[in-house]
Every structure is written in structure tokens, then in C-alpha cells.
Amino acid sequence: LSDIIGGPAFTIKCRIALDGVAINVSGLLDTGAGGTVFVHPRLHQVVKERLKPTFYRSRKSIPVAGHNNRQTGVVNQFFLAQLVIDERRTTTWFIFCDTGRHDLIIGRKWFESTKAMPDPLNQQIVWPDDAKIDAKRDIVIPHSAFTRPTIDLAHQKDADRRDKLLEVATIEPLLKQQASVTFTPIRTSWQMDQRDNLRKMDEQLYPLLPVKTPPTIRRKRTGPTQRSGVGIDLALLKGQSFLHGAKRKGVVIGATSLYEIDQLINDRRQENALKDDAEELRELIKEKLPIAQSDLD
Question: Which residues form a coiled coil (predicted)?
């Protein structure tokens, strides 16, 4: 009975290739499988990372039946690549499906398209006479890249212990050092320029005010400050603060320029100069011609 049942499976070494990169796999020849080439899902990640094909999905999943005609799963993802067997390269469709312990199952439709014949006695494929040998060489990825290395729990536990000791030895001294060091804010150049610009504007505006001493500018978030004399309140705001203030009632948004501000300052200076000249002329007339001045009054 052992002579008619069992024995090694009819498998053959082959490669999945695309754009000069190939993966070594082992395929089971099965003329009863109704498809081209079926790929085990465990190869999905290595195919995606190394070959980088274009994956396709069918809108409707197709059920897959086993040898007993019972549904064992569904397939809906596939890609196009090259299958290299005996240095003969054929472009075919690869379908992801549970293939058991085999990497590939080469189905009936692949044999129909290539006109090749399986030879179970010699464990090989009989190719037609017109099948050409492809001399192209691919960069082959070994089969060991498919499986992830096993983790030794004892080694991992020892590595975690050493990592904790290193953290204690390196982080705690740094935390103590940071706690003892006081940091002072660094004033950047744009902040210094901003401060100088505000000081210059204040120097230009304060002489125009009727009071002798310049008042203290207090910028409040509740709204613009009110001043007597020159009704100008200058402040630099961030965009978020500007939008927040613009939504409030009674806020009027306008635009001006430094040139217009200089013109206002010059006009006010000219008005003050004319008033000073008129007052000086009136005092001179009063001093020289007191009678005429009283008549004029």
C-alpha cells in the first residue's frame, strides 16, 4: 500500500520576478486547480515590499472550493508578474489564496496558456519546442527573507533589563542638572527691532500731547485705550488676537501707513507753530500798542 499511496509532492523550484527582482519559491504542480498561479498570503508582505507590483481587487469575491467541493475561502486580490521555471519566463496572474504548506500552486490554466506538460515520473515539466530559454538575470531574494527570526524570550528579557538600567544611569543625572540650571529667555533680533520701533513712535507722538509728561501706555485686551489730544493708540497684535478683537462690537478696522502717520505729525506741528506765531504776535501788539489792543478786543 505504501507503494501506491504517499511519496513526495510534485513540486518544482521557481521564481516570481518583476522588473529585475525575483523571489525564490517552491510551487506545487496541480492540473486540477482551476486557475493560473495561486500564492499563499504569507508572501503578501515580501511581494509588496520587494517586487512592488500593482495589486488589483475584484468587486465581488470569488469562492474557492477544495477537493471535496466545499468552500474553503474566497479570493479577491491578484497581481501580474513573471513566473520563471527552468529559465523560461512566462507572464501570468498570481492570485492570493490559502495554498496550505506550499508557496505556490501552479494551476491548470497556466499549463493551458504555456502548452507545457507535467512529467511526474521525472519530477519535471516538459516544455514545447518553441519555448525559449530566457537569459535574463534577476536579483534573487532568498527564501529566508520570508520568515521572521524567532525571539528568544530570555535574551529579550535581559535586553529590557539592560535598557532600564541605562535609562536610570543617563536620564536621572540629566534631570538633576536641568533642575539646577535656570534658563533665561533669549531676546531675538526681531523683538529688539520691534521694541525700537515702538520707542521711536512713542517719541514722535508724545510731544504732540497737551500734557507735559508722557502718559504710560497700557495695552488692555478689553478694547482700545482712549486718549486726549492725539487719538492714536498703537499696538502690535498677533493674528489670532486681531481676529478676536475684530469680532467685538464697536470695533472699527482701518488701514494706514507710516507715511500717513508722518503727514499727520507734520500737519499738527505746523498748526502748533502757527498758533505759537499768532500768540507771539498778539503779545507783541499788546506790549507795544496796549490801547490799540484793547480796542481790538
Answer: 261-288
Q: What CATH number should be reported for the domain holding residue 71?
A: 2.40.70.10
Q: Give the total residue count for the chain.
A: 297
Pair 141, 206 in one domain: no
- 118 and 61 within one domain: yes
Does 84 map to a domain?
yes
Side-chain half-sphere CA neighbours of 10 within 13 A: 16
Task: Return the C-alpha cell found at 143.
Answer: 527564501
Q: Is residue 176 part of a domain?
A: no
Can you give the pLDDT of all 297 residues of the chain as single tens digits?
667 777 788 899 999 999 999 999 999 998 888 889 999 998 998 899 889 999 999 888 888 877 667 777 788 899 999 999 998 999 999 999 888 889 999 999 999 999 999 998 888 999 998 888 887 788 888 766 666 667 778 888 888 888 887 777 777 676 676 666 665 656 566 677 777 877 777 776 665 555 445 555 555 554 444 444 445 555 666 677 777 777 778 777 777 777 787 888 888 877 777 777 667 767 766 666 655 545 555
Rounded CA-CA distance 134/157 in Å is 51
Cell numbers representing residue 115 in the block: 502548452
End-to-end CA distance of the chain: 145
Decide if 186 is inside a domain.
no
CA distance 26 to 236: 73
Helix (H, G, I), strand (E, B) or coil at 206: helix
DSSP 8-state class, residue 131: P
135 plus 39 within the same structural domain? yes
127 in a structural domain: yes
Last residue of a domain, one of 145, 178, 200: 145
Angle at Cα 22 formed by Cα 18 and Cα 27, nearest 5°? 105
Instruction: Show the domain range for 52.
Output: 11-145
